[in-house]
Amino acid sequence: MKRFITILLSAVFVLAFAGCASGNDSENSGESSHVSADVSQESPEPEPETRLKKCFGDLYEQEEYYISTDITVVSSASPESVSKYALTIAADNKNNAAMMRMTPSQGEPVHIVINDGFSYNINTETDTFTQQAFTDNVSSFTSSYTTELYLGITEGLVLKDTGEEEIKIEGSDKKQKLYYEKYQVTGGEEDSLSDGMTITYYFDGDTPKMEIMETSAGKTTFVFHEISHKINDRSIFNPGKLPAQISQ
Predict the structure, then answer these.
(1) pLDDT tens-digit profile of 67-117?
(2) Which of 68, 71, 175, 238 would staple 225 via disulfide (CB 3.0–4.6 Å)?
(3) Is residue 219 within 8 Å of residue 200, measured between CB atoms?
């Protein structure tokens, strides 16, 4: 699946993700605040705890978490060509179990379950799966589809601006006022994709709403349906009573 995402990135030269909220309602009110990225090294002031850190920073430290999001990718070179995906990913670090499902608007879905020391690549059209031993840990697996692809990253960012904005969540008919945090991505010389990249997270109270990543090459938007540190339906880690097409 990571290879699938890599192909997606190579095709559009851009990846971006949707926002995540934390904090109380009082933080949402008032005039827009603006935070300078130029912080003196001699300043004794501690770094402010951002809503991003309180959301994703805390989420990825939990024993388990669940993320459901829609993804829209638009390339500057071909703005008329829009790619859409639905992504669900869940991790149970304590029991070394995970689930990832990526469904494109066109093409075949990818569905992977990790449980009981095995990785199951499920073909939902034929009700079969390929199976192989899984010797890694689920945190490495899930990071391939989250932080390594800029989903909820909290490192390598410089906070540039905060405030409120009237914005329409993709798929919604109405605009709403959301609190935002805008970051400059500083991925280093080895990460050419991050050159000139910005990420803006949008929050509605404690509810994560949207993240937008932008570069000169294009924009990708992630609209979150659910972000939780609890997995309510644990059957997602069960590949089901499907016949094994290939067993390795």
Answers:
(1) 999 999 898 888 888 899 999 999 999 999 999 999 988 888 999 999 999
(2) 68
(3) no
- Alpha helix (H) ranges present in 27-69? 51-52, 58-59
DSSP label of 31 = S
Contact in structure between 20 and 228 (CB atoms under 8 Å): no
Give the DSSP letter string of 62-112. Answer: SSEEEEEEEEEEEESS-TT-EEEEEEEEEEETTTTEEEEEEEESSS--EEE
Token code pair at residue 146: 């989250």
Collapse the DSSP code of 188 into the 3-class scheme (helix H, G, I; strand E, B; otherwise coil) and give the result. coil
Work out whether the CA dihedral 140, 142, 143, 144 comes out positive or negative.
positive
Instruction: Express the helix, strand and coil content of the chain in percent, nearest 5 each.
Output: 15, 40, 45
CA-wise closest residue to 105 among 78, 79, 83: 83
